[in-house]
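Thread amino acids onto this structure.
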């Protein structure tokens, strides 16, 4: 199997494709290693291409959205790719060279870029030199620690600047999971506040852990944290508006079709019924086109007065209409596809929901938005790529002769 290590990536693929079952344990590991080397080399090519795109476009922020579209990745991942590509192709050439050799993969390179991001260009290059012989055979956490140590070595006086830079990057993120769960995280928060917050949550959770409390301590901590965020008081709830889409038969328990929570995606029918049956829940009647499943009208019986056209557009769109963005519509801006000053009209046919970032992106040079009569939004990027977005139907489209479900 020593010959395998001398083969090119294409040779390896051709040699082992369809024949892995015949290989022993050591040979299979060698194939996995050879494949990883090839992947790292290809990732280096991708970083160079993304870096070149950034230089062609003058480093504008919309490069992140274009990369997200082209590679079908979420915006946060695209942002990491763009920032890492810029660092590797300007400040960290030796780390990029390690990728060419298959020594460091893209994830490890991103760790180096992040750990040295606070350094000046000169100091970053010096850290890059120190790291050249220290990364081979290291996993991503070891790479991160080595890069952090190198960064502090080349700029011993910059520790406070580094802390200031890191704390300035604090942010709140939401990660959606499956089966009706999601995670919320405060990233890079000030350590003293994070520690104090955890201490308070833990204290209140332990106080609730009495003999007849069925929840585990982990569950109690999570519940207390969410209650504190919603109401400011642990153990108490707060009314919050969410858009839950569920057909009547599912609500009545006739079927178990999944429902949809705007900004999250599908949730099990049982979870949807639990949400819909809450004491503060307000139900709305939504009329859909029986063939397309698209929203036609809203029922007017509800807890608060209707907001008219704006409310209709938000219910119809569910989420930000930029392809790939899932910010809930109630947290978005209503925007004219054709700007008001250029003849746009304030009606449901010409309004869409865009989150604040994508609202600003729409006005950048080279980005073109077109809304078709059927509600399909077509976004054309500065490089001429076209991406479509349509509000998903509330139910599966039916044929003209198919009877309604109830």
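Threaded sequence (406 positions):
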């Amino acid at each position: 199997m020593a010959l395998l290590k001398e083969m090119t990536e294409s040779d390896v693929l051709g040699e082992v494709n369809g024949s892995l079952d015949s290989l022993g344990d050591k040979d299979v590991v060698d194939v996995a290693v050879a494949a990883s080397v090839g992947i790292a080399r290809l990732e280096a090519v991708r970083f160079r291409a993304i870096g070149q795109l950034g230089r062609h476009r003058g480093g504008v922020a919309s490069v992140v959205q274009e990369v997200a579209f082209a590679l079908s990745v979420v915006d946060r991942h695209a942002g990491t790719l763009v920032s890492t590509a810029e660092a590797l192709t300007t400040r960290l050439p030796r780390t990029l060279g390690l990728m060419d050799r298959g020594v460091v993969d893209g994830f490890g390179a991103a760790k180096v870029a992040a750990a040295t991001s606070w350094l000046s260009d000169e100091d970053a290059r010096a850290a890059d030199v120190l790291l050249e012989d220290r990364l081979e055979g290291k996993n991503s956490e070891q790479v991160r620690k080595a890069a952090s140590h190198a960064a502090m070595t080349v700029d011993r006086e910059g520790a406070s600047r580094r802390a200031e830079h890191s704390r300035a990057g604090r942010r709140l993120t939401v990660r959606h999971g499956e089966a009706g769960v999601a995670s919320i995280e405060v990233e890079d928060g000030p350590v003293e506040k994070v520690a104090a917050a955890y201490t308070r949550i833990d204290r209140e959770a332990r106080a609730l852990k009495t003999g007849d409390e069925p929840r585990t301590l982990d569950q109690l901590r999570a519940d207390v944290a969410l209650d504190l965020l919603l109401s400011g008081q642990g153990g108490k709830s707060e009314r919050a508006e969410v858009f839950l889409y569920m057909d009547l038969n599912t609500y009545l328990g006739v079927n178990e079709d999944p429902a949809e929570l705007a900004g999250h995606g599908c949730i099990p029918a049982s979870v949807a019924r639990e949400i819909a049956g809450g004491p503060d829940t307000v139900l709305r009647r939504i009329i859909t086109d029986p063939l397309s499943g698209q929203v036609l009208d809203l029922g007017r019986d509800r807890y608060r007065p209707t907001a008219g056209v704006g409310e209709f557009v938000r219910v119809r769109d569910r989420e930000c209409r930029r392809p790939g963005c899932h910010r809930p519509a109630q947290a978005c801006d209503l925007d004219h596809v054709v700007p008001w000053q250029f003849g746009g009209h304030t009606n449901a046919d010409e309004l869409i929901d865009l989150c604040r970032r994508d609202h600003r992106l729409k006005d950048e040079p080279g980005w073109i938005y077109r809304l078709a009569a059927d509600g399909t939004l077509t976004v054309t990027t500065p490089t001429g790529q076209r991406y479509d977005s349509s509000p998903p139907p509330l139910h599966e489209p039916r044929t003209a002769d198919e009877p309604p479900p109830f």
